[in-house]
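Below is how a single chain appears once it has passed through the pipeline. First comes the sequence as given, then the structure the pipeline wrote out for it. We keep one example in the README because the format questions we get most often are answered faster by looking than by reading.
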Amino acid sequence: MRAVLVWTVRLCGRVGWVAVAVACTWLLGVGAVPRPWNGVLAWGAVAAGCAVVRAGALWGVRRLGGSGNKSYGGGSWASYDRMGPEVLGRRRPPLGYVLGCHLESRVRIRVRTCAVWLLVGLASSALFVGLLGSGSGDDRVDALRDAGARVSTATVVERPGGVREDLSEDVVRGYSARPVVAVPGGPERLVVKGAHTYDKPRAGAEVAVLWAPSAPEQGGYVHERKDLRALAGGRWSAFSGGAAGRDALVAFVLVMVIGFVLAAVFTFTAGPEALQRLTWSPGVQTVRAALLVYVFTSVGTIGDD
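Resulting structure:
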């Protein structure tokens, strides 16, 4: 029974690592991700499930006595570095020795720790980018999308009202206004509330507008920092064109750099024995599983919005 639990711990660790990596890759994919985020959520569910099962198996190992990092010969983790006489004397050594899986060496322990922390950095950056680009934060977009929204290039037909500067650290980052636009093949007067543009809006200027041909009374939506076509399709792209995409890329790089630093710190500041104890600690892995489940449920809530 103990052997089954030990291999359950190992298998769940590997499958969970792969599931998180695939989910992050999907979340940062080359194409726009449609809602609901079924693919991302499926892999996230696998990762969260593996973490919970792994923690449960570790508690089972502790209940049965001993830690799961012992060798086939019954010694400590360090005995993995070489085949003992009891193994060499066998006609058929265990499969783990044949495949090299017995090598719980100092190098392997540090590589495993580094891989875990690099994955933490990747997951954090992917989640951060996902939160930045997950939606418009405006109910108007949802209403326009439900009415069959499309994106058109419109012309401002009169002097916009309510123009004000969007300031950041006393620097003008854009303008917010209430223009009236004319859409080719559509309404000649379409009111846009709270339009965000880089340049100060004026009559005769062209802007991209999100609007619904079946419901022109709902007005339009203009925001030059966002990908309107992705919003119209209920999608988002991690690194889309425009300022929002650049901001997401900067955030991704910064969080990944922090992940590399944490990977280096946690990999090389602690000894292999301490790292191995943390890997097989039921308490530590239970906290990790709870955190992973919390993150998964949070992302699921965002994806369903």
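Residues 106-133 form the longest helix (28 residues).

See the next section for the split statistics.
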